[in-house]
Amino acid sequence: MTIKTALLLAAGLAPLPAFAQALPEAQRGAMLAGIEKRTPSLAATAKALWGWSEVGYQENKSSALLQAQLKKAGFSVTPGVAGMPTAFVASFKQGSGPVIGILAEYDALPGLAQTTDPTKTPIAGKAAGHGCGHNLFAAASVEAAIAIREWMIANKVQGELRLYGTPAEEGGSGKVYLVRAGLFDDVSAVLHWHPGDANGVSTGKSMANISGKFRFHGVSAHAAASPDKGRSALDGVEVMDVAVNFMREHIPSSTRIHNIITAGGEAPNVVPDFAESYYYVRNVEPAIVRDVWARVVKAAEGSAMATGTTVDHEITGGVYSMLASETLAKVMTRNLDTVGGEQWTPEEIAWATELQKSLPVQKPLDSVRETGSRERGPDGGGSTDVSDISWTVPTIGLNTATWVPGTPAHSWQAVAASGSSIGAKGAAVAAKTIALTAADLFLSPETLKEAKAELDKARGPNFKYDALLGNREPALDYRKPTPAWEGGKTK
């Protein structure tokens, strides 16, 4: 055992296999220089998407811009894949060889419109904001893909590069429909990234989830003159909430259930004939999510019986937990360390210092310069539809420091940073790391073979992919306002 190997093992890191060699220095330097030169373009794209802030399945301008850029760069683009108008696949193929996929997300979150000011300053009249930084995600992935294509041509590298434009990650499970349609069946590896407040590669599990809407139907009546003639749909929603809250004691403690009431009537003196509740159930184990969701459905049915109403439900999303590739993580970690963290200007540091005053947890600002050692990371937390891909293709991703350290996702602070220059700098780190990692994998079929064997072992011999959202078509209207109801029918 060499001293280097001993140090890696002592740090909890397995050494890279001998066949996973880094890209030759001249090629690596050229690729990094190319992305650095195009960083202004990355920033402009990210800012355009930030300005539009289009929510799930409504990302028409964002998707069109990304497709146009990729076509101009020499990719063949197939729009509207898997029944999703804003989804697309961009491909560059040169001979036969591995197929490497890169993911791009571009949907915003409702209710988070915010300027780039370091203090809370909502944008009047705007309905959504990029509180998860998907504007950066998409822009960086596109720039990485363009850089890889140029490298493949310059060095006569054989294989196919695909960029997947994936809408509606935030609750719409867009990637699940791509998996179901078989669009990853021939892919050797998939690379992705996500904005965050630190740089690192993690292989911890995310949470599987099922989400859906429960719609109760009752009978309208005058709430004072003839309440006995009415049957309140809102009562059904509220009794369901009580039933689910009592259920929490009797489910696995790591399970998360959360909901909002999306429709509850129009006026207090009218017994509402329609009400709707939007639920999420999460756990790191998909089987537990299925079981708890079935019990939530039973609670809804019982609540309808108790209140003299009827109920139907629609599963709008469902994703697995992450099954990240340790083999690919080693390669990506090396490349992240090569790229290094961000360097902020004095003006950016001053901006970040001001924003940090609003954060409950304040971390050192200079931590954005660090890449950190690779850790498995904690299980749980949020959910992502990348997870479904990870159960079908070897998959790995990273986070980069696009936000002020200590910033939580889905916050106005994340929106502000995602539209700023520090967001673009963090995105450039991601673009460079993904590009180098893809290049390494194109030149290392042995690494891809090892990653596939690792995935097969982790899934087990009898694994068969079965989407948690079932066979439904994409819920293209899940972000649209709940329609008004009259007599059980939409107006």
UniProtKB/TrEMBL annotation:
Residue span(s) of domain Peptidase M20 dimerisation: 210-301
Residue stretches in coiled coil: none
GO biological process: folic acid catabolic process
TM segment ranges: none
GO molecular function: dipeptidase activity; para-aminobenzoyl-glutamate hydrolase activity
Entry's Gene Ontology cellular component terms: cytoplasm
Residue ranges, compositional bias (Basic and acidic residues): 366-378
Pfam families assigned to the protein according to its UniProt record, in alphabetical order: M20_dimer (PF07687), Peptidase_M20 (PF01546)
Gene3D superfamilies per record: 3.30.70.360, Zn peptidases
Signal peptide region: 1-20
Alphabetical keyword list: Hydrolase, Signal
InterPro entries according to UniProt: Amidohydrolase, Aminobenzoyl-glu_utiliz_pB, Bact_exopeptidase_dim_dom, Peptidase_M20, Peptidase_M20/M20A_hydrolases, Peptidase_M20_dimer
Region described as Disordered: 362-389
Entry-linked PANTHER family: PEPTIDASE M20, XAA-ARG DIPEPTIDASE
Cited NCBIfam families: amidohydrolases (TIGR01891)
Name this polypeptide is given: Aminobenzoyl-glutamate utilization protein B
Gene source species: Sphingomonas kyeonggiensis
